[in-house]
Design goal:
The complex is a heterodimer of chains A (472) and B (359).
Chain A lengths: L2 H9 L9 H9 L3 E5 L6 H12 L3 E4 L3 H13 L5 E4 L5 H9 L6 E4 L1 H4 L2 H8 L5 E4 L3 H6 L10 H7 L5 E5 L4 H11 L4 E5 L7 E7 L3 H15 L3 E5 L3 H14 L4 E4 L5 H12 L5 E4 L12 E6 L6 H8 L9 E7 L1 H13 L4 H9 L7 H12 L4 H26 L5 H7 L41 H8 L1
Parallel strand pairs in A: 1-6, 1-7, 2-4, 2-5, 3-4, 5-6, 8-13, 9-11, 9-12, 10-11, 12-13
Chain B lengths: L6 H9 L8 H9 L4 H9 L8 H5 L8 H4 L3 E3 L5 E3 L1 H10 L8 H7 L2 H19 L12 H12 L4 H17 L3 H10 L10 H8 L3 H21 L19 H13 L2 H8 L3 H14 L13 H11 L13 H4 L4 H16 L8
Antiparallel strand pairs in B: 1-2
Classes of the chains: A alpha/beta (472), B mainly alpha (359).
Chain lengths: 472, 359
């Protein structure tokens, strides 16, 4: 039995590898840099966990979101791995110093790209003999670097500073264009690619159009009543709307529902996540803050109340459904106003004449705080204004194309899966009745997505004395 | 749905008055805990210093100025200040009712209740899981410093099981001294063995209470527990307050005042501290705002006679006082900061304002 199989079974207690895991590990064992494009829920974390056990050297994981980092660290700790830490803003100064002083204590170190932009921190990592440099959710380099998280652009420099360690890029969504972009931005020598189909055939794709917001809300409430008692996620692009609809669903249905977004305190995020995992909650009304790293197998439906950012993001978000392989529903609810809202949100990322003037005159305090940070990055890297204008114009064009592709998916007259997978450069030609609505709005067969798990029941209200007694 | 009083609306009503127009930006800055002289001074004038910094504790609860105006509860003056209407004051009275929840402000200003609560929740989770012999669970996500604090607390325990039992008894005693609503709100948030706890929103929904009632009951309950833990050091929760007591005034401000009291010369303080004169006088104003009347040397900077003369020139309405409106003769002998100091003294004498955490 190969060592990786032994580790899989004896240390991690899995019977067999999932598609793509073995191929990726084999390439890593050969010392190659690898881009692994594996479907959502394919067990990407396990790849670097096993590799860490093989090479007995630190694994540095670049992770885009605080919540995702914390989830992964907690999951690894829960499964018995103690040598894991997330170096992020949840650590106070003294803890951070302690971690940085004893980096060699850890086998798995999670950091954000922004953290590595700090020269002092990078210097500490330079002293480590990093065994593997992992970029989780690697598509973020292409999706966010230009106009949102510029420190992703710095990763090639970071790799160089770290002595060009072996690198693993992990993602569930990367078109040919994104793959080329990753190669270009990271300048990795001989990047090998493992591509598994990202198609999730058990997820039924559908879109429903509405004339107005009220009609959309009514439909959603009616549908949810039919989907009882399944678990599901409803995505919103606004925190306020997530709150409003969570309250409305609680009032109008017997589905236990909660909102989840960046405004929640850490303990509240924990509670909602655990309640959802334990089927105390059936529905989460979330912004995209919820999802990356959530591994609940029996999510039966993912509904988008507002538009996703683009088709690759949609592919990623609906991938949180049906991880147990059973039928699950991906439904997008659409009104024409949603497109306007999305256009408005996209336009916020573009540079205005005021931004450009502030850049030229170096008076960055005149622009919005988030843009200040962005422009400072470009200023620090001595990007001329003309070059900056071109970079952002190209990015705006890319976004426009991506948005157009999303609208085409919504107004698709044929197989939606074909369109969705094409956005990730995957062809598909096996449409059947279980695939999608084929561009024709049909009633959702809620029975198909009924849960096999125990229905959530609202726990009876206990007297506070009883709560204390049960706790101890 | 639009006519409902949300927690944001209720908070705004709580912060407004029907006779004193209040500036929205100042209210936002006050809740955010900004410590500029303007924010603290107007916080004092509005009698709202007890709310300073609450935004951090409340997190997602933010002031919303549109809802209440749409409902005719609040009106805007020509200077863009806000005032309660008759309906607004009636609604405010309806909201101030429910439970005797006064008293939390002093606790909030003298103790870091946010971290106390995080430590409390995590400690109870750890002890609950221990009491049931469960070693594999997801610990509550709290600030790193609080996680470390509880880890240290736990590892130093001689007998965790006995401490768990003691903690249970302490909690029963401590919660028993609260109102039923506050005890319920605190207890239902707790996380532990086979209990994921509830968020405040969930508690409000389950009991059919308003979000505002629950938010108040939580703060009141946590403040009460912290006070009990402060007063009775034998309680298992008492060590959780370690390092969480807040000074009455900022340490840098205190240093400036101490130096002044030693040298009785602003110039000397300025030289010692290597600060601009305006920073020194700002420190003194902040000290005057935060300290009890008797603990600040007002007479060294502005005499009662000067204050009476200002009153003569500008009238009794302190909120309308403008330094620029003073006569040239007066302005040549009294700087802006001394003028402001006079207003602070009069405010304190008039309001008999509480100095949270002092004495």
């Amino acid at each position: 039995m190969a060592v990786i199989d032994q580790l899989l079974q004896q240390k991690f207690h899995y019977k067999a590898f999932r598609p793509g895991q073995r191929a990726t590990l084999t390439m890593l064992q050969r010392g190659q840099n690898v881009l692994a494009i594996l479907p959502t829920g394919a067990g990407k974390t396990l790849i670097y966990q096993i590799y860490g056990e093989l090479i007995h050297r630190p694994i540095l994981i670049i992770s885009p979101l605080l919540a995702l980092m914390n989830d992964q660290v907690e999951r690894m700790r829960y499964s018995g791995e103690r040598r894991v830490v997330a170096l992020n803003s949840t650590l106070d100064w003294s803890e951070r110093q302690d971690v940085l002083t004893h980096l060699n204590r850890y086998r798995y170190l999670f950091v954000s790209p922004e953290m590595l932009a700090n020269p002092q921190i990078l210097k500490k990592f330079q002293k480590l003999l990093i065994g593997l440099f992992v970029i989780d959710e690697a598509h973020c380099i292409s999706q966010w670097a230009i106009d949102f998280r510029p420190d992703y652009l710095n990763l090639a420099h970071v790799l160089k500073k770290l002595g060009q360690p072996q690198t693993l890029l992990l993602t569930a969504t990367a078109s040919q264009q994104v793959r080329a972009d990753l190669q270009h931005k990271l300048r990795l020598p001989s990047l090998q690619t493992v591509v598994e189909s990202i198609n999730r055939p058990n997820i039924y794709l559908a879109v429903h159009h509405f004339n107005n917001e009220a009609a959309k809300q009514n439909y959603l409430l009616q549908l949810l009543q039919k989907l009882t008692p399944s678990s599901g996620i409803i995505y919103f692009s606004s925190k306020k709307m997530a709150n409003v609809m969570a309250t409305a669903i609680n009032r109008a249905t017997n589905l236990a529902t909660a909102a989840y977004h960046a405004d929640l305190s850490n303990p509240d995020r924990y509670k909602i996540q655990q309640q959802f995992m334990n089927n105390q909650l059936q529905v989460i009304c979330a912004t995209t803050a919820f999802g990356m790293g959530i591994n609940k197998p029996d999510v039966r439906f993912v509904i988008h109340y507002h538009l996703p950012q683009d088709l690759p993001s949609y592919q990623q978000e609906i991938g949180r459904g049906g991880r147990d392989g059973l039928p699950s529903l991906a439904l997008l609810l659409y009104t024409d106003q949603d497109a306007n809202l999305a256009r408005q949100l996209n336009s916020l990322d573009q540079l205005t004449s005021v931004d450009l003037k502030a850049y030229q005159t170096k008076q960055l305090t005149q622009v919005a705080p988030q843009k200040q940070q962005l422009l400072r990055f470009y200023h620090h890297h001595r990007v001329t204004m003309e070059k900056l204008r071109i970079i952002f114009a190209q990015r705006a064009q890319q976004k426009q194309q991506a948005f157009q592709a999303l609208l085409e998916y919504i107004n698709q007259t044929g197989c939606r899966r074909k369109k969705l997978l094409a956005s990730c450069s995957e062809s598909f030609d096996q449409h059947d009745d279980d695939c999608c609505d084929n561009g024709i709005e049909t009633e959702i067969n809620a029975d198909l997505y009924s849960s096999t798990s125990q229905p959530a029941t609202n726990k009876p209200i206990m007297d506070w004395r009883e709560i204390i007694t049960k706790l101890f | 749905m639009s006519n409902e009083i949300t927690a944001s609306d209720a908070l705004l009503l709580e912060l407004l008055s029907d006779h004193q127009p209040r500036r929205p930006r100042l209210l936002v800055n006050l809740l955010a805990g900004k410590k500029t002289v303007a924010t603290r001074y107007w916080g004092l004038r509005y009698g709202l210093l007890g709310f300073a910094g609450l935004q951090r504790y409340w997190g997602s609860l933010k002031l919303d100025f549109s809802g209440t105006q749409g409902q005719g509860l609040v009106t805007t003056t020509s200077k863009n200040e806000l005032k309660l209407t008759k309906q607004g004051i009636a609604q405010q009275r309806r909201l101030q009712f429910l439970e005797p929840w006064q008293g939390w402000q002093a606790s909030f200003q003298s103790l870091d209740l946010l971290h106390f609560k995080q430590r409390l929740l995590l400690l109870i989770q750890v002890m609950s899981e221990r009491a049931h012999g469960n070693r594999q669970y997801h610990p509550l996500l709290v600030a790193g410093s609080d996680r470390q604090f509880i880890k240290t607390y736990y590892t130093r325990l001689v007998s965790p099981l006995e401490t768990a039992q003691q903690l249970k008894e302490d909690l029963q005693k401590m919660l028993g001294s609260l109102t039923t609503t506050a005890a319920t709100v605190v207890a239902e948030q707790l996380v532990g063995f086979e209990n994921n706890g509830a968020t405040l929103t969930q508690i409000a929904f389950n009991h059919q209470w308003t979000d505002w009632e629950v938010i108040q009951a939580d703060l009141f309950g946590i403040a009460q527990l912290a006070q009990q833990a402060l007063q009775d050091t034998s309680l298992t929760l008492s060590p959780l307050l370690q390092g969480l007591q807040k000074p009455i005034i900022d340490p840098s401000v205190a240093t400036t005042l101490q130096l002044y009291q030693r040298f009785h010369s602003l110039k000397a303080v300025q030289n010692k501290r290597q600060m601009r004169p305006s920073t020194i006088t700002e420190h003194l104003l902040l000290a005057a705002i935060d300290l009890p009347l008797a603990k600040f040397p007002y007479h060294d900077f502005v005499s009662d006679l000067q204050i009476r003369e200002i009153q003569k020139e500008l009238g009794q309405q302190l909120d309308h006082w403008r330094y620029e409106a003073l006569s040239d003769r007066f302005r040549s002998t009294c700087d802006f900061w001394q003028f402001r100091l006079g207003a602070i003294k009069l405010t304190k004498e008039g309001q008999k304002v509480q100095n949270y955490g002092s004495d």
